Amino acid sequence: MAVKKIGKQTVRLKNPPSIISTYSIVGPKEGDGPLKEYFDFILQDDLCGQKTWEKCESKILEDAIKMAIKNAQLSEKKVEYVLAGDLLNQIISSSFAVRNLGIPYFGLYGACSTMAESLSLGSMLIDGGYADYLVCATSSHFCTAERQFRFPLELGNQRPPTSQWTVTGAGAAVLSSNGLGPYITHVTTGKVVDAGIKDVNNMGAAMAPAAADTIIQHFKDTGYRIDDYDLIITGDLGIIGKEIAEEFITKAGYDISKIFTDCGIEIFDNERQDTHAGGSGCGCSASVFCGYIYKLLKDKTLNRVLLISTGALHSTTSSQQGESIPGIAHAVTISNTKE
Amino acid sequence: MAVKKIGKQTVRLKNPPSIISTYSIVGPKEGDGPLKEYFDFILQDDLCGQKTWEKCESKILEDAIKMAIKNAQLSEKKVEYVLAGDLLNQIISSSFAVRNLGIPYFGLYGACSTMAESLSLGSMLIDGGYADYLVCATSSHFCTAERQFRFPLELGNQRPPTSQWTVTGAGAAVLSSNGLGPYITHVTTGKVVDAGIKDVNNMGAAMAPAAADTIIQHFKDTGYRIDDYDLIITGDLGIIGKEIAEEFITKAGYDISKIFTDCGIEIFDNERQDTHAGGSGCGCSASVFCGYIYKLLKDKTLNRVLLISTGALHSTTSSQQGESIPGIAHAVTISNTKE
């Protein structure tokens, strides 16, 4: 019997893993934004000494993983798994990032939902007794994403107001069967939800229905009330997506407005930094969680947070073939108590 | 404590999940090969009524998942997770395949190692008490892979003798906390191993060191002897990669030659079908396992099998930027007893 299952899509961990350390690295633009004090490392430029943007993305992911392990005062040999993924074709940032680590590796793809996907699977692997230490990590890079999904950077193409700005950043979290918290206590795994959006410049709208679906299901499954949480933060719906998701969630009877925000909104100062609908990319919720939220949990400014990373599951090929953009959202409860 | 961990990279499942059903679909070429009697469904052409090869690949993956669930006499509502991935950019085959299912979904990317990756994570989710029923699935398609990774099909480009033929096929397996076997008893998770191979037409050589590494580690971790197994079958090393892997494994003191083969070798009649070094693609080990090996386990022709799916973790971008091709291999023990 699935003894740890509660409700339809949620798991309640019996031995909640502790997030014993994190590390975040962001690019210069993110490092000039409202959260700059919180990030562990800010790049001087978008190549960080590498020859290509892709190699830079892989390097910052590797560095984030290594530094998170170091911050946990662990040797790399003690780490039993790395669970990682990114936006690039065949998730090369992740595969190349772990190539020199010698740690068993599960590659994931959930688009921008990958941070919560890795925390979900990682926390079940710890709770289930399969590992004592593992790393969950992901990255994105503005330049690698732009040229892969949209246009050559050199084209200087105009961006519509609904578009989001892919975050250059990486985040890594070390989960342990021991530790003083914060703990991952619940995992709500998302379904693919396709609302029929075909506009590749409006990811927020494409992902919002999936985010709403997972958040509503989380409350149904757990029986939590809104005020059991200090913060509900989506991965990167941005300004437009957050508004749509909030409308869905409110209609379902959950008024989360007072404690609801989005990593893509928090990471940039839109007025000053001209990021249109806000930040996006796997590295958005990764760096905001690992850099910012984790520290607020550690110093007890926050005590229970619902992190929902959201992904748009399309490719340039699927869009060129006329397909809509399905979304997915995975949620994890991160709490200073094991309850 | 990680009570289910044995040795460095292996997990021994306390409540081994049962594979209660499988389903396999292959293309016309695979359906004309030596295993044709074993596949559950053979396509008449490589579009199966769809407008594009990509849509065809997604459709056969969706059909395989649905039919595996049907064969298990389950309703889709009973299935708690789908774990799936494929070779296409942003794993669109998988995301679109599960879009209409309404089942929580973890997207994976392990290149051609994905079938064993999904069985690895899936079996831990069942064993750990997080689900009673889930589906592990993956697919590939000759035409989608060729045009994404290599050349336009229409070019009719020459293929060197070391090249492999991407299998058009999909496989899905339903895992359950209950059932009469075969059971997944052990999971050995691979590390990324990079031997420096840069030839994108010699994937076998790129993946062989990773396969050898995982197989050797499996025997070290478990203490199994070679004759504890009836069959050791790699995912898709093909003729060249298998030879290299076998040499590594023999040098490490394990003579597996009598029971060692490869899905990429078994699926085609190379003499007649002109497939050069053999089959490859996520769908290769998926269709060979779900179509062939599973049936031999069910009728007790085989009683304990080590399935090792192998992946080459590169992209066209990484190769164009001069990177080598790292490999990975994940192994699962599938046995008619729970030991």
TrEMBL record, chains A, B:
<dbReference type="GO" id="GO:0016746">
    <property type="term" value="F:acyltransferase activity"/>
</dbReference>
<dbReference type="Pfam" id="PF07451">
    <property type="entry name" value="SpoVAD"/>
</dbReference>
<dbReference type="InterPro" id="IPR010894">
    <property type="entry name" value="SpoVAD"/>
</dbReference>
<dbReference type="InterPro" id="IPR038369">
    <property type="entry name" value="SpoVAD_sf"/>
</dbReference>
<dbReference type="InterPro" id="IPR016039">
    <property type="entry name" value="Thiolase-like"/>
</dbReference>
<protein>
    <submittedName>
        <fullName>Stage V sporulation protein AD</fullName>
    </submittedName>
</protein>
